[in-house]
Specification:
The protein is mostly helical and 182 residues long. The protein folds into two domains: 82 residues; 70 residues, Orthogonal Bundle (Arc Repressor Mutant, subunit A), CATH 1.10.10. It has eight helices and two strands; from the N terminus they run H-H-H-H-H-H-H-E-E-H. Strands 1-2 form a two-stranded antiparallel ribbon. The longest helix has 20 residues. The two termini are 25 Å apart. The relative contact order is 0.10.
Length: 182
């Protein structure tokens, strides 16, 4: 690929990636969705007689391994999507906070967590969710996304149970749709 083409592609995807980052959609999720779209388009574009292209043809056109093409094509044919298979790391933290008995109270509501004091601390939560980043980074990102708040006592409160949630989903969709109408 020529440098000029690479620059143009970057220019096209930069605003989309900026938007995804603003709303907490990470590279892993974007990559999974991109693979799905690549395979879906290649299967239709390179198929013959109204049939989908075979895995080898899709693989050579997309640069995605035949094994991965086969796996994703099966998901597409079963009407499932890749993003359902990929959990956002921040969502894993939130899900553990909601569903793990160490991090919710007897009414099954998420506990207020101290940062690093005790068995039910935010640091323990992040450690158990296996997100491979520091608890402080996770806390700042959840706070930036408006998913947690620190109360006056320094306890961390969960405000939303999804990274893309009812309060921001319409805005996210409207901004994504603005790229389609360009």
């Amino acid at each position: 690929m020529q440098k000029r083409s690479s620059k143009l592609i970057k220019r096209v995807i930069k605003p989309i990636i900026d938007l995804l980052l603003i709303f907490g959609v990470n590279y892993t999720t974007f990559s999974a969705i991109s693979k799905e779209v690549y395979i879906s388009i290649a299967a239709k574009r390179f198929g013959k007689r109204k049939r989908l292209a075979n895995n080898s043809r899709i693989s050579i056109a997309t640069g995605i391994s035949r094994r991965e093409v086969s796996r994703i094509k099966k998901l597409l044919l079963d009407d499932k999507s890749m993003e359902e298979q990929v959990a956002l790391p921040l969502q894993r933290v939130i899900d553990l906070w909601i569903f793990n008995e160490n991090f919710h109270d007897h009414d099954s509501l998420p506990k207020l967590l101290s940062y690093d004091d005790g068995n039910a601390s935010f640091c323990k939560l992040v450690g158990q969710s296996r997100v491979n980043v520091t608890p402080r980074s996770v806390m700042h990102e959840l706070e930036r996304l408006g998913l947690i708040e620190l109360n006056k006592e320094g306890k961390i409160r969960l405000l939303q149970n999804k990274v893309i949630n009812d309060s921001n989903e319409d805005i996210f969709h409207a901004r994504l749709n603005s790229f389609i109408s360009m």
